[in-house]
């Protein structure tokens, strides 16, 4: 695998981008760091205290991201730094499961491609009638998971522990990279805000982690190829970068979907 001299714009929040950037650079690529989201913990922590008191009555706790773990889990643990033994803990994504494991919490993880849809087809999620479930997330997240679980009879509540904002950046790129990585629809919108004066943005190839974000990019007027990872992980992103550098971008007559 090689990304020699391949310029990759990485738009993840600053505290979550470094591992991916280092892997890109280890393959000879040039990682351009441009965080388009800033993750801010919510000032009101009282919902966390209330949730902690409810844990003995809960059946399932779902963490949607590593940020949900970072800003939610510590205040949910008991004096022994543990969750109730009866509680089923679930992570959407490998990074989220790894973040839980770092606190000594074992969690079931959604299978590849590590997203909400994959979680919803797990056998565990089919018979959830009357189960009490809390989803730990950021403000304004997707509604799909809660909606589907409620349709299956579960009692679902949210625990919002952080919010996402568009950062104020002093230094912005003025020349196009070979490809841009954007991992959420909100990040895509912030990218356009931050680089509003750069004419090359919508004509630069884009790598995303879901069809939902790809469709959002199309609706926003992106004209370059839009690639979607087969697996929503750093490994999936790197594999697609290598494919695009070595083969994909030289394929003629392919649509963005076919060039995936």
From TrEMBL:
GO-annotated molecular function: uroporphyrinogen-III synthase activity
Residue span, Tetrapyrrole biosynthesis uroporphyrinogen III synthase domain: 20-237
The protein's annotated pathway: Porphyrin-containing compound metabolism; protoporphyrin-IX biosynthesis; coproporphyrinogen-III from 5-aminolevulinate: step 3/4
Catalytic activity, as annotated: hydroxymethylbilane = uroporphyrinogen III + H2O
Entry-linked InterPro entries: 4pyrrol_syn_uPrphyn_synt_sf (IPR036108), 4pyrrol_synth_uPrphyn_synth (IPR003754), UROS/Hem4 (IPR039793)
Enzyme class: lyase
The keyword Thylakoid appears for this protein: no
EC number: 4.2.1.75
Keywords: Lyase, Porphyrin biosynthesis
Pfam families in alphabetical order: HEM4
Any single biological process term in GO: protoporphyrinogen IX biosynthetic process
Domain of life where this protein originates: Bacteria
Gene3D superfamilies per record: 3.40.50.10090
Stretches assigned to coiled coil: none
Keyword Iron-sulfur: no
Similarity annotation: Belongs to the uroporphyrinogen-III synthase family.
Function of the protein: Catalyzes cyclization of the linear tetrapyrrole, hydroxymethylbilane, to the macrocyclic uroporphyrinogen III.
The protein, known as: Uroporphyrinogen-III synthase
